[in-house]
Amino acid sequence: MRFWGFLASVIPFELAQGLGVTGRFFFKRKATIQYPEVKPVPKDRFRGMFGFSEERCIACHACAKACPIAIIHIQDHFEEVEVEGKKRKKKVLDRYDIDVKRCMFCGLCEEACPTKPVAIWLTSKSYEAAAYERNERLYFDKGRLQSWDGVRPYPGVLTPAQGQLPEAPGGAPAGSAEPKP
Ligand code: SF4
Ligand code: SF4
């Protein structure tokens, strides 16, 4: 017994064990990245910052009705317009706000939108919208939902104001209109 105790005190078995663990993980693929220098690459279906197109929105309120926590606020009014010599009533969007700080990114608003392409979408690959003043800065009106003031787009991604499309946040897919400068 004394002999084994002496041997254990001379040979550093624990050190060898520890180095074995270090060696095993040294050659494994690293799970951590050096954020923000290195940014995680989002999947195509990743839901991040909202994209919004006022041009395509028909103020139908379907997205607001679909939202389970009622954080989309829409107001509109009717205006008379002349189409091919006939007077018609047209809905005009006055307000389209999303309280993004409360959003759970379920995507139900995007699914409910009837326009093609959709007028509201979350597959924008962009997730850098951190702010000190969350009540002010994470409440987006229709202007900021398009300009992305205060949001950093994922590298290579256009803002909605620059012509981002739901299926191609980085630029227009083949056959569609060119993105705006
Ligand atoms: S993604 Fe956000 S805004 Fe859209 S329906 Fe879900 S909770 Fe509401
Ligand atoms: S569902 Fe689409 S078109 Fe209808 S109000 Fe919402 S964003 Fe606009």
Write the CATH architecture name of the domain at 51-162.
2-Layer Sandwich
List of distinct ligands in this structure:
iron/sulfur cluster
Let me know the largest β-sheet: 3 strands, antiparallel
How far apart lie the N and C ends?
81 Å
How many helices in DSSP terms?
6
How many β-strands, per DSSP?
5
Helices, strands, pairings?
Blueprint: H1 2-10, H2 13-26, E1 51-52, H3 62-66, E2 72-83, E3 86-99, H4 108-112, E4 120-121, H5 134-137, E5 139-140, H6 142-147
Antiparallel strand pairs: 1-4, 2-3, 3-5
The protein binds iron/sulfur cluster (2 copies).
One iron/sulfur cluster binds at residues 66-67, 69, 71-72, 98, 103-109.
Question: Can you tell me about this structure?
Answer:
- The protein is elongated.
- It has helices at residues 2-10, 13-26, 62-66, 108-112, 134-137, 142-147, and strands spanning 51-52, 72-83, 86-99, 120-121, 139-140.
- It contains 6 helices and 5 strands, in the order H-H-E-H-E-E-H-E-H-E-H.
- The protein has a domain at 51-162: Alpha-Beta Plaits (2-Layer Sandwich).
- Bound molecules: iron/sulfur cluster (2 copies).
Observed structural traits:
6 helices, disordered C terminus, single chain, 181 residues, two-stranded antiparallel sheet, Alpha-Beta Plaits, alpha+beta, binds iron/sulfur cluster, three-stranded antiparallel β-sheet, 18% strand
